[in-house]
Amino acid sequence: MSGSIPFYQKHQRHYDRGYRSKETESKLSQYQSSSRYAAASAGSSTSSAISTRSRGLKVSSHSGLEESRLSPIPKRAKPTYLAVDKENQIIGYVVPIFRGSSEFATGFSDSEEARVRGTSAYMARRDLFTSGLEMERSEQISRREAMRESAERISLNKRIHEHEEHFKRMNEDSLMHPPEFVIKPRSHTVWEKQCVRLHCTVSGWPDPRVVWYKNNVAIDPLANPGKYKLESRYNVHSLEINRCDFDDTAQYHASAMNSKGEQSAFASIVVKRFKGDVDESLPSPRQGPVSEYGITFQTHIVDQFGVSFGREGETMSLGCTVIIYPALNRYQPEVEWYRDDVLLSPSKWTHMHWSGDRATLTLTHLNKEDEGLYTLRVTTKSGYETYSAYVFVRDADAEVEGAPGAPLDVRCLDANKDYIIVTWKQPAVDGGNSILGYFVDRCEVGTTHWIQCNDTPVKFARFPVTGLVEGRSYTFRVRAVNKSGMSRPSRVSEPVAAMDPADRARMRGTSAPWTGQIIVTEEEPAEGVVPGRPLELQVTEATKNYVVLSWKPPGEKGLEGVMYYVEKCVSGTDNWQRVNTEIPVKSPRFALFDLAEGKSYSFRVRCCNSAGVGEPSDPTEATTVGDKLDIPSAPGKVVPTRNTDTSVVVSWEASRDAKELVGYYIESSVVGSNVWEPCNNKPVNATRFICHGLMTGETYVFRVRAVNAAGLSQFSPESEPVEVKAAIASPAPPYGITVLECVRDSMVLAWKQPNFIGGADITGYFVDYREVIDGVPGKWHEANIRAVSERAYRVSDLKENKKYQFQVRAANMAGVGIPSLPSNTFLCEEWTIAVPGPPHDLQIREVRSDSLVLLWKPPVYQGRDPVNGFYVDIKEAEAPEEAWRGVNNKATEKSFIKIKNLKEGETYVFRVRAQNKAGVGNTSDVTEPVPAVTKPGSKEIVVDVDDDGIISLNFECCDMTPDSKFVWSKNYEEISDASRLTVETKGNKSKAVFKTPGEEDVGIYSCLVTHTDGASASYTLSEEELKRLLEISHDHKFPIIPLKSELAVELLEKGKVRFWLQAEKISPNGKVDYIFNDNAVSQGEKYKMNFDKNTGVIEMIMESLTPADEGTYTFQLQDGKATNQSSLVLIGDVFKQLQQESEFQRKEWFRKQGPHFIEYLGYEVTPECCVILKCKVGNMKKETSALWYKDGHEIKSDEHLGFTEGVLKLEIAQISKKDAGVYEVVLKDDRGKDTSTLNLTDQGFKDLMNEVFSFIANSSTPLKVTSTDEGIRLYTFVSYYNDLLQVTWHYKDSAIAFSDRIKSGVVGEQLWLQISEPTEKDMGKYAIEFNDGKGGLRRTLELSGQAFDDAFAEFQRLKAAAIAERNRARVAGGLPDVVTIQEGKALNLTCNISGNPVPEVTWLKNDREITSDEHCILKFESGKFASFTITGVNTSDSGKYSILVKNKYGTESGDFTVSVFIPDEAGGKKK
Question: What pTM was computed for the model?
C-alpha cells in the first residue's frame, strides 16, 4: 500500500490533502481496505437508493488508468469523485457508499459530529455500520484481494503518470494551456484569534505561478512575519492566516499565471467576535495601549501636489503629506486615490505607497488615459479629507513628422467565443492633416506578436474583431493614420478572453462551500435534438464598413452546444445567401463585412449541431448599409473667464442633438500666432474646463469641438480674447492676532497679512471684538468704521479686567473678505512689566540661498524705559524649541538685519526680542517657515554710471504682474524725499538716479516689487563705494579714448613692419598724430598710414628697418574732448632682433616666389608598417621638376613615387638596412630652386625602425598556447614581420636561454616559443617583449594550473597519437587489385608488411579466414614479407581475398580478387 490516501485521490493534482482533519485521515486509512468490496457488494437495492438520493447530480469519477491514455493531445486534470450541479459547478466531494465500522462514521470534526448525530440519517447509518463482526470476517479474504488489485492499479497508474510527464517534457509546445482553477478557494467566517486556511487547486502547462492578494494588494509574508504562510505543493496552493483579527476581514483572491494566460479566483473572509468577551459598545482592543474610543481625529493634507504636466512614456509621482492628530500608534487611515471620481487600484500603470505620513501615487508609464482630476481621499473614524489637482498628459513626439497622436481608452465590449467589439477615443492631435482612419491590432496573451485586424483603415471609433480562438485571451491596441504616416500605438487594452459570457460569469463566481454531505448521482443519457430557431435577431450596429447582428440562443437546443449560420438577402428579393459557408460561428454575435454601401439587406440566422440544422429565425427588417451615427454638430458660443495667472476657465454651449457623445476637446492660441495647441488630450464630458499651463500676461482665444465614435465635429466659433491674469477676489482672512499693548480701557492688536490678497492691493482692515463672560462669547461689535491701513490697531472703550476676543477682516477693491478665526481670549488689564513688549509685523525680504533680510517694527509697549536694541533668534523649521539660537550676540539698534551663512535648501523660522535697561522682553510671533532658496529669475540691484557721469541704481523684475509697483527704500524706509534722488520706471525696469551724490547718501538702498513672490534686492552704498563711483563719474565727465590694445609692432609679408593700435570707440571726427622721436611724420614713400574709424584700428607701415629707425614711436589720438596716446620704444637688442626678423621674412618671401617646400621632408609609418617619405610643396606648375635622391644618386620613378594634392611621397614597402641613407628632394623650374634633405643613417634610421617596431608590437595578438606532438608552443601573430625586429622571450621575468629543448622562431607572421618534452618545472609566467627603443611592449601568458594541465594533456595525447601512427600495422604494397589466371597455373603473390611490434597476419577468402595447406601456402617471413601461393589454381579458387595485419596500434587490410578461367570455354569466360 502507498499510505493513508486512496489511490484515486493520491494521483489527482486537484486533491486537497489539508482540508480534512488528521482524525478524518486516520479514519480514511481504515476505510481503504474495505471500500472496493463494499461498493461492489452493495447490491441493486443499494444502488437504486443511492440514485434516488442524488437525483439531479452526476458523479465525475474515473480511475487513473482511464485518464492516462498515451495520447499526444493533453487532457486537463478532471475532478475525482466530485459532486457537481447542472452548470458543472463543484458543490462537494462524493464518496461511494460502503460498509465499515461505526468508528469511520464519526470521522467529522467535533462540531459537525454533534450536528450529524441529531439527524435520522445518522441513526440509520449507525445501525448499518455496527451490523456485527461476522459479516466483516467473511469479507476479509475479499478485502485482501481488493487491496492487492488496488496496489497493482497504483503501480500501473504511477508508470503511466511518469510516462505522461516525460511526454509533456518532450512535447511542451503542443501541451501548453492557460491556468484553470480545478478547485477554487472557499469563503470563510471565523472567530477572532482563530486561524483560517484558503486553498485552491490549479492546472495548466507550464506550471502556473500563483500569487495571493488581499483587497487587490499582493500579500508579502516577509512584511508581516508569522501572520501569513504560503504553501504550494502538487499544484495545491494554500494561504494560512494566523490569529485573525478585524483587519483580516477582506476579499482575497488567488491569481494564477503562465505564458498562456491568467486566471483569478475570489473568496471572502469575515472575522467575528465572541459575545461576552469584549464589551460590544467599544471597538476591539488593539495590541498595545492605544484605543480609538472617544477620539476625534483631525486630518490635514499638506505639502500638496499641484497641477502637473507630463508626456507620454514618462513617469510621474503625485504626493501629499498627511497629518493626523492625535497620532496614534499603529492606527492606519484608509488612503484612496481617484481619477475623475473613479477609484484607482494598484496595477502595472499605477503604484500606490503609504509611508505612515505621506501618500504617493506613481504613474509608471504615462498615457493620455492617465489625464484627469486626481483626488487623494484620507478616511478616518471621524470623517475624511480630500485634495484634488489636475494632471495633463501631452502626446509623445511622433515617430513620423506630421503623424497624428495615438488613440486612447481602448476597451473591449460584448466579448463572445470568437467575437469582440473594440472601441476607442480619437486623439486630440491630428498632426495637421485629417485622420484617414484607424488600424486595430490584436495580440494573444503570453506572446508578443501583434496581428493587424483590418486591412483598410476604419473611420468609426468602434470595430468588431472576429476569427478569435475560443478560450484564448487577447489584448488590443489601435493606431491612427493620416497622409503623413502612422501614429504611435495606443496603450493596450485589458486582457479579455474569447468565451461565452455565461462561462465567464461562472468563472468569476466562487466555488460552493464544503457541506459535509456525501452525494452520489448518475448521469442519464440524452438523445440529440435539432436546435430551434434563434430568438430576438436584430441589427445592433451598422456602418458603411460593417454590420453587426446579435440574437439569443434558442430555447430548444439539446444538451450539446449549438453553432450558427448567418444568411443575407438583398431587399426586394427572396434569394438568401449563406455568409459563413465554411465554418459556423459559435457566438450569438456576427459582423458582416464587404457589403455594398447604400444597399438594403435583410438577415436571418439558423442553429446547427450534430443532429442537424434548425429552422431559420425571423428575418430582420431591411437595413441600409451606411453610417447610422452622425458626427456631432459644432459646439456653440465659447466664453473664457480669468482664473489664475496661468489658467483660464472655458465654458461653451453643448453640441445640439449629439448622439453617443464621448466628450469635447479644447484648443488655445495666442492672439496673432495662428498656432493652436490642445488644452486637453482626453475628452471632457462637461461644458466647462479649466485650461492650465498658459503664459501669464499673454492674450488667448479658445475653440472647442465635440467627439463621438463617428468622428470629431467642426470647431466652434473662436472665443473673445482673454488676458491670462489672476481674477480679482476678496482677500483671505488675516491670521495670527496678538496683543502688543494693554492699558485699562484699550488694547493694541497686531495681525499678519492674509496669504491670499485676492489679486489686488489690500486697502485696509476692519477689527471686531466681543466680550467673553465665563467662557461664553457675546455678540461681535465693530471696533473701527473706517479701514485701517496698518496691521496694528488700538481698540478703545474696553472694560478693565474683562476678557475679549477679536477678529479681523481684510478689504480690497473686490470687497471685504471673510473674518479671521476668533483670537485667543485676552484679559484687558494694564501692563506694568518693566521690559518691553514683543516686536511685531516681521517681514522677510531678499531671500537668497545663503542669506535673507528680516524687518520688524518696534514694540508698542516700551516698558519702564525706552527700547535700546533688538535680538534676533533663528532655528530650523522642523527643529525642537530648544534649537533656538541667537543671530546677533550684541543688540542691534536698527529694525532690520541681514542674516547670512544660511544652508541652501534648509527652511528657517525667526523671532525678535526687544531690550531696554530693565532687560529683554517677550519674543515676537514666529515668522512663517522660509526656505533658503534663490528663486529663479532673481535679480540684484546694479549700480551704473552713464557717459555723462550720472550715478544710478537699477533693478529689473522678470515676474511682474500688471498691478506690480517698484518701491525704493533707504535703510528699509520708503523714500519720500525726492531732493536727493529721482525714480524712473519703465516696463519691468526701475532706476533711482542720484542728483548730487554726497556723504549724506551713504546707506542701504533696497527695492521691493509688489504683487510678486517677494521680488526684492538691496545695495549697500558705503563711503568707499561712493568714492569709487565718484571717480568713475569724473572719468565719464572728462573722458579718455579707451584702447582695446596699446601700440604694438608686427611683421608683415615681405618683411614689412607694421605699427598699430586699436581704440574701443572713436567717432568719425577723431584724428591721429604720428610721432617718431618727438618729431611728427607724415604719409610718404617710407611711411604708409591707415585709420579705420569703424573698427578703431590705426596703423603705420614701413617697407624695412634701417639703423636710423631706432627710437620711440608714438600715436596721439583726439576725439572731441577725449584724448589718449600710446608709445612703443625700439632701442638696443629689441630693435636689432626685429630688424633681423624683418630681413629673414623678406628673404623667405622671395624664396616662395618659385617652387618651394611648405613642409620639409619627413617620414610616416603606416599601420601596415610601410614607410612613406613625404613633403608638402607649393607654387608648383607643369614645368616644375621634383627629383628624389638617395646618397646623391637619383631615385628612378616607379610605383613607389607619388604626388597628390601638393604632397610628394616616396613609399618604402618593406624597409631594411639597405634603405638607410640620406634622402633629398629638389624642386626646380625657371623661377628658382628649393631643396629639402632627410638623414636616415645611424640614429635617424634607428629612430625610424623603432617606430616601425612599435607598430609591429601594437599589432601583435595576445599570447596563446597550443600543443604539438613534440611539446607545448606559445605563439603570437603580428600584422607584419621585419627581419630587424628584436624580440626577447622571458620566463618568470628573466630572459630565456635557448637550447635544444627550448627554441624560438618565426613562421610567416607567427612568432613562437617551442618547449619540447615539458615538465612541471616549465610552469610559470611567460612573456614576449618587443623592443622599439622606447618602453617596448610585452605580451604575457600564465602557463600554470589548469592551462598547463590542459596543454600538457593535449601534448601527451598528440605524442601518443604520433607514436601510434608511426608504429601501427600497415600493408605497404605488392598486391594487385585483380588477378586473372588460367586454370592449372600456379599463383604466387607477395606484399610488404610493416609495424612495431610485428603485426599478426591473417588471410581471408570471401571474408572467411583460410589457413596454409598443400594447395594454398601462406608464409610470413622476417616480419616484413607475406606471401600467398596456390600451387595449381582451379575454378573453386576464384573469389575475393584479403590480407589483415594487426598489432596493438592498429589494423589494416589489403584486398584483391582472383578470377580463374578455363581456356577451352569460348571467349575465355571468367568465373
Answer: 0.42
